[in-house]
Amino acid sequence: MPIPTDTNLPQSGATGGAPADGTLVQREILRSLAKGISLYRLTYISQGLQVKGYLAVPDSAMPVPGLIYCRGGIRKVGMVRKRRIFSMARRGYAVFAPFYRGNEGGEGREDFGGEDRFDVHHAITLMQSLPEVQSGPIPLIGFSRGALMALLAAKECEGAGPVVVWGGVSDLLDTYEERVDLRRMLKRVVGHPRKQAECYERRSPVCWVDAIRVPVMIVHGTADAQVSVEQARKLGAALERAGKEYTMELYDGLGHRFPKEDDERALDAVFGWIASKRERAEGRDR
Predict the structure, then answer these.
(1) 13-48 pLDDT tens trace
(2) Nearest Cα to 40, choosing from 25, 52, 59, 27?
(3) pLDDT tens column, 242-255
(4) Of 6, 39, 112, 147, whose CB is crowded by the most CB atoms within 10 A?
(5) What is the CATH number of the domain that holds 178?
(6) Within 13 A of 72's CA, how many CA atoms are on the CB side?
(7) Is 285 part of a structural domain of the chain?
């Protein structure tokens, strides 16, 4: 099936009204510096807002498995790096990385795992509608703050596949204590940790691991100065107590972002794990 490019697509819903959440509004082809990978900027609907993100697709026989990469940071900090999603797409996946609402020309304002979590929820619907993406649940990789977004999807979305938590925040109250430099932002965006404790708990997977429905892989560097490795251990212990399926790989001496060689090694392990979960799920469906 030919893939439309630089296209403004119909913006009405099935009944002729506003477009439904997850509807693709626009696909723009971008210059790709990665050989064998096509790059697009997609605009889609989330809670009535137009939200944007990058889609990287290997130039191979289609359809291919889909994957969502949930970026870390907030606003300009931690914005999606093309190189990052290219390295994932080279492993045979169509990779979509939402910018979250309010970024790169998108509407709305992100709020660190609050209403903006729906931008990931509806990205799953979007991915399942794309002609280059195979049918079935969509795996997610959440980096840093993106771990909250990915695990919220695993909690709340039927279409979410296995989740990889990489250098991920699992307890936002711990992040508030660990990261003095983030306290002003967290109080502004999330609230005060004592006065609005429930807002932090809603964004902390360790508080609701019982509701996570999919296998989880935890990847973390033991020398991570931005998200303590204790958050990985805390999430693993909570999943263990809840009887959930998970695996954890700690990389000794590595920080929040891995050097290239170690990063590629970790990506190989991550995609090997995702492939094993997909194969098992497909076997059950036969």
Answers:
(1) 445 678 999 999 999 999 999 999 999 999 999 999
(2) 27
(3) 999 999 999 999 99
(4) 147
(5) 3.40.50.1820
(6) 17
(7) no
Q: Are strands 138-143 and 160-166 parallel, antiparallel or unpaired?
A: parallel
251 in any annotated domain: yes
Question: Using a CB cutoff of 8 Å and minimum separation of 24, what contacts does 233-241 make?
Answer: 234/170, 234/171, 234/174, 234/206, 235/165, 235/168, 235/170, 235/171, 235/205, 235/206, 235/209, 238/170, 238/205, 238/206, 238/209, 239/209, 239/212, 241/209
pTM of the model: 0.93
**Tally of domains in the chain:** 1
Residue numbers of the domain that contains 46? 23-280
Q: Partners of 53 in the beta sheet?
A: 42, 98
Distance CA 273, CA 216 (A): 10
**DSSP per residue over 53-99, as a string?**
EEEEEESSSS-B-EEEEE--SBTTBTPPPHHHHHHHHTTT-EEEEE-
Q: Give the largest Cα separation in the chain, rounded.
A: 56
C-alpha 147/C-alpha 271 separation (Å) is 17
**Helix (H), strand (E) at residue 208:** none
Residue 15 domain flag: no
Catalytic, out of 38, 46, 87, 144: 144
Which one, of 105, 114, 47, lies nearest residue 79 by Cα? Answer: 105
Helix axes 82-89, 260-285, angle to 10 degrees: 50
Residue 205 · residue 148 · CB < 8 Å = yes
Q: Evaluate whether residue 18 is within a structural domain.
A: no
First to last CA, the chain: 26
Which ranges of 7-70 does DSSP label H, i.e. alpha helix?
none
121: annotated active-site residue: no
